[in-house]
Amino acid sequence: MVEAVQGAKVIVTGAGGGIGAALARRFAGQGALVAVNDLDADRAKAVADEIGGIAVPGDASSVVTDARDALGGTVDVYCANAGVGRDGGEPGEPLDEQGWALSWDVNVMAHVRAAHALLPDWLERGSGRFVSTVSAAGLLTMIGTAPYSVTKHGAYAFAEWMSLTYRHRGVKVHAICPQGVRTDMLTASGSAGDLVLRPTAIEPDDVADALFRGIDEDRFLILPHPEVAEYYQARAADPERWLGGMNRIQRHWESTR
Fold first, then answer.
1. Which EC numbers characterise this protein's activity in its record (predicted)?
2. What is the pLDDT of residue 99?
3. What DSSP assignment string belongs to 163-216?
4. Average pLDDT for residues 124-148, to the nearest whole number?
5. CA–centroid distance for 107 within its chain
6. Beta bridge partners of 243
7. What pLDDT is attached to residue 91?
8. Where are the alpha helices (DSSP H) in the chain?
9. Is the Cβ–Cβ distance between 36 and 64 less than 8 Å?
10. How far is C-alpha 172 from the geometric centre of its chain's CA atoms?
11. pLDDT per residue over 144-154, tens digit each?
């Protein structure tokens, strides 16, 4: 058992399946009361019923008030897990501004809005935990989808800013950055995901395992795929070489489409 989350009041967004459902189950298994949020009300209810939690369906961008009320007025842990992967159109193609706007709203601004709603109480009492499901794309990048790559960089940057700004005031922040995870989003990533992510894809439960190790060790950066640390170091040490290697992957992908 991880003492830091026993008896906690927890919100998990995008928890109707995939990583979110795995996180909700793991928190509940540690004795937490979980508000299960998802756009799909039936899926949210199914997970909530399974774990003895509370279903709070709806948009992740505005869930805090309703979920906090459902939890009795207190939130100890917020898991900003809901995310979208959209293709916003490559240069030279028609610009999908709607896809860009949706990616920005769900992958970044939902996190910002949640923090805005939660921080006053957390700072007053000197405790709170913000868990951001980012992606290795937020540290590196992902071929074939500019909106996903760019907004996941934004999600990581916001989590990093939160950690450096509030850690001395009792707010814990964790950024989870997996590569491929066997979820609906991986299936939807198409041929790019098949090439880059599927060969080393892990299960959602593996992501939950990594998070709880990170909570127990009080770590900000959670890497369910440890090799991502090496890629991140290589990117920082020699950007030109790293970009050249990524471009080779891009060209290989283009040749197979």
1. 1.-.-.-
2. 87
3. HHHHGGGTEEEEEE--S-BSSHHHHHTHHHHHHHTGGG-B-HHHHHHHHHHHHH
4. 95
5. 8
6. none
7. 54
8. 18-29, 41-51, 64-70, 97-104, 110-125, 146-166, 184-188, 190-196, 204-217, 227-237, 239-256
9. no
10. 15
11. 889 999 999 99
Q: What's 7's DSSP letter?
A: T
89 vs 58, more confident? 58
What pLDDT is attached to residue 93?
64
- Locus of tokens 């950007």: 239
Interatomic CA distance for residues 237 and 133, integer angstroms: 25
pLDDT digits (tens, 9 = 90+) for 31-78: 999 999 999 999 999 999 999 999 999 999 999 999 999 999 999 999
- List own/partner pairs for 60-64 with CB under 8 A and 24 or more apart: 60/13, 60/14, 60/106, 60/110, 60/114, 61/105, 61/106, 61/109, 61/110, 61/113, 62/113, 63/11, 63/13, 63/35, 63/37, 63/114, 64/11, 64/113, 64/114, 64/117, 64/118
d(CA 45, CA 40): 9
Q: Which residue has the tokens 């959602």?
A: 204
Identify residue 149 by its one-letter amino acid code.
S
CB contact set of 189 (below 8 Å; sequence gap of 6+): 85, 144, 145, 197
Coil, strand or helix at 142: coil
Determine the pLDDT at residue 97: 87
Q: How confident is the model at residue 186, as a pLDDT?
A: 74
**What is the C-alpha to C-alpha distance for residues 169 and 146, in angstroms, rounded to an integer?**
35
Please identify which residue in the block is written with the tokens 């897990």.
81
